[in-house]
Amino acid sequence: MNLAATSDGTLQVTGLDRLSASNCQDFKQQVQPHLAPNVRVIEIDCTSLRFVDSDGLGTLIAIHKRLTAHAGHLRLRQPLPVVRQLLQMLRFDEIFEITP
Amino acid sequence: MIPHAASALCREYRNTLRLEVACDFSAVRTATLAIRDWLTEKGLPETDLSAWELALIEAANNAVKYVTPEGRQLPVIIEISCGDRNIEARITDHTAGFDWPDEVPLPEPEAEDGRGLFLIKSFTDQVAYFRHPCQNIMVLRRARPVAATEVSPEIGQLQSRLADAEAALTDMTAELASSYESLVALFRYSSELGAQTNVKDFSNRLLKDLMQIAEADGAVLRMVSTDGKKLETLLVFPDHGSLLLPPVALAEATASVEIGAARNRQDIWFGPEEPLAEEDPLRAVMATGSGICHAFYVADQLVGTATLGRRASDRPFTAAQVNLLHTFIDFLAIQIVNARLLDERTATRVTRRELEIAAEIQRSLLPAVVPACLPFELSAVCQSALQVGGDFYDIIPAGDGALLLVIADVMGKGVPAALFAAVLRSTIRSMPQLFDQPGELLATANRTLFPDLSRVDMFVTAQIACLNPRRQKIISASAGHCPLLVWQPDTPEAVALGHAGFPLGIEPMTRYVQIETDLPPSALVLLYTDGLSETRNATGEMLGEKKLIQLLAKTATHTSDTHAGKHYLLNRLEDYRDHAPLTDDQTFILIKHLA
Description:
CATH topology of chain A: Transcription Regulator spoIIAA
Number of domains of chain B: 3
CATH class of the largest domain in chain B: Alpha Beta
CATH class of chain A: Alpha Beta
Mean pLDDT of chain B: 85
Number of strands of chain B: 23
Largest sheet of chain A: 5 strands, mixed
Oligomer: heterodimer
């Protein structure tokens, strides 16, 4: 997994292939240091994310809440159909920005 | 092909895959990937693979998250069966368990947790959760999609489907028959619960029924020995005789799966891939095939182990058959506990009867009537706090109209105390030549009884007095006993008389001082045991010798004879203890000069 900050206040996360109980704590620990007020958006590249479980989804919600505290938000870019359907089923498309 | 899964023990039989996985998130994640690969080989489409992957990981993650501290060392067991129409998974956890809710609503979008059960329910068709004291099983079922090629089936495919349907029907019939047999057996056992049943007979019938219903051909039942240190064989099927299975010590390092199951409180499976160790005693019965060993407990105490085996088959027991094993053995455990309680009750009844007999003997040792000794009048009482106490008294004609009065308290209570009371009575009665010398009588009795008393670390306190009506005197001697209380009309209070030597049984060569006391008309004398002076009131305060002396003075002035005096004393003592039951024996002899 890679993290890269852009000049417009976006933290880009790439290379995430799964987000579940077995790795969500590591994921949170890597992202947390970047949750500064100048980071408004965290954009997760979901093109390789093929599995998310309820603990992984809980982690996304926790990060989203931290971002909204200073008017930011979480963006999920191009999730695979299996993940997209899961997000829609759980009505996460109402709170995250999900790009086609 | 059995897939590889790190940290997991895999076992595959026909269309069933069983994995025993370490209780951590990474291990269960690896295991679900292995199952996904296995289901891929079975031809499941991607949608179903994803659904099973998610449902299984949620169930298994719950087993890791909520595991009890003692369950953390035990594996999470995932078993999945791939049928033609359905796929069923069973996840065994060692958590405290929970009740599956009637409704599983979707949590609010911003909630950080609580979606696990919702996802399990959403991606399966049926969910059931079975709770058990040792472990819980979640059963998930989801229909297998119909293959697209079956839209226009060929004859061969139709035949294949027909064969599948017949197999399914056979399985269902077998399951129904098994359920019916189980129910009938359980109802029969229920009717026996609480009845006086021989445990071995009951276990024999139960184990045979269990073997038949669970399709087993071997079984071993072991019970914890009475000292709790080893497992002893109660039953072996087929019956090769118990000698083939020696007891196994619970504390020793051993390769026995029975000891392993008992120590870890976990079912242990064995079979071709995990055979019994060469030195495992079970190999005498189950050297081949497969089996499962279950340890059973009542009130957190190990009761025994039950092992079922299929000696001629590698086919493992199904989850339903394992549940059956647990249920039947639970019944057995209850019956064993009932039998133990019945045994204890019988033993208590026997002990009570023995005490009744001893009490009858002790009562027979007391004088049937108190001899006349004019101008003195006597009354006596002996009340035991237990059925058989350590107090006794004796009144023996001593010649020339005199009486020998004996009052004694044997250390302790119950049958041993009563036996020594009887021996002391006989010893004293065998020395009539010393009746007028109480001090010498005590010294001789002490030398006679010392070897027996000291051998069992017991002792006796005794007061012996010779009441001489002609000389109107009482001569007394005490072996560590309460003093003689004497009330005389010309003194305001009674006085305590006596010079107590060692109790009998302490020092073999003890000498006892004799005291002579005049008993003028109206004098009242009390010989008593410490049960009187140590009577306690509701706040625990002891009556004491001083208050007993005052009570004797009141008895003298309030009553005219010893019969009335005896009841007056007993009533005041009962008032003092606020009518509570006796906690110590109460024995006394009351003597009054009537003239």
